[in-house]
């Protein structure tokens, strides 16, 4: 491919991407950018590819959920996708701070304590849901 064709292709790709991004709600653009950053940090702290693939699957599921909520908003009667996206944005911000701390980025002590408390609460909830799931499956 000649330089002229390559530059023409790149300009077309940028124009197409810009047009596509303009039609995506800003809140989803923010979430996507945070997820991309989280994925990069996951790659830096992950011990194996399974962790990265698991995180990618979670992100895909998140966007599938948000798409389903967008479609069902007329039935639900409120902006369910936006409210849910805010939750996921906060989740991504916490994950980014947590992974940055793992990489040695200095985190204020108050934020560090908050992350530890949130992680412990999350682990407790996950343990309860797994116990409940096992109890339901055994009946």
What is shown here, in short?
By secondary structure, the chain is mostly helical. It is built from 5 helices and no strands. It has a domain at 25-107.
Write the layout of secondary structure elements.
Elements (H helix, E strand, L loop, with lengths): L2 H20 L3 H20 L3 H28 L3 H23 L6 H30 L1
> Topology as H/E string?
HHHHH
For the CA atoms, what is the radius of gyration?
A: 20 Å
- Termini separation comes to 64 Å
Q: Strand tally, please?
A: 0
Question: Can you give the mean pLDDT?
Answer: 83
Structural account:
The structure is a single chain. The chain is mainly α and 139 residues long. The chain is 87% helix and 0% strand. The chain has a domain at 25-107. The chain has five helices and no strands. The chain is extended and about 60 Å long.
Task: Considering the chains and any ligands shown, give keywords for the structure.
139 residues, mainly alpha
């Amino acid at each position: 491919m000649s330089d002229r064709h390559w530059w023409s292709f790149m300009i077309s790709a940028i124009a197409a991407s810009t047009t596509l991004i303009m039609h995506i709600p800003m809140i989803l653009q923010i979430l996507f950018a945070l997820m991309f950053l989280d994925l990069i940090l996951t790659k830096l702290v992950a011990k194996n590819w399974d962790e990265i693939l698991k995180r990618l699957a979670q992100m895909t599921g998140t966007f599938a959920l948000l798409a389903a909520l967008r479609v069902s908003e007329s039935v639900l009667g409120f902006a369910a996708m936006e409210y849910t996206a805010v939750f996921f944005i906060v989740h991504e911000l916490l994950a980014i701070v947590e992974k940055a701390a793992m990489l040695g980025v200095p985190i204020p002590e108050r934020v560090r304590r908050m992350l530890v408390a949130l992680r412990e609460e999350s682990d407790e909830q996950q343990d309860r849901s797994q116990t409940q799931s096992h109890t339901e499956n055994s009946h």
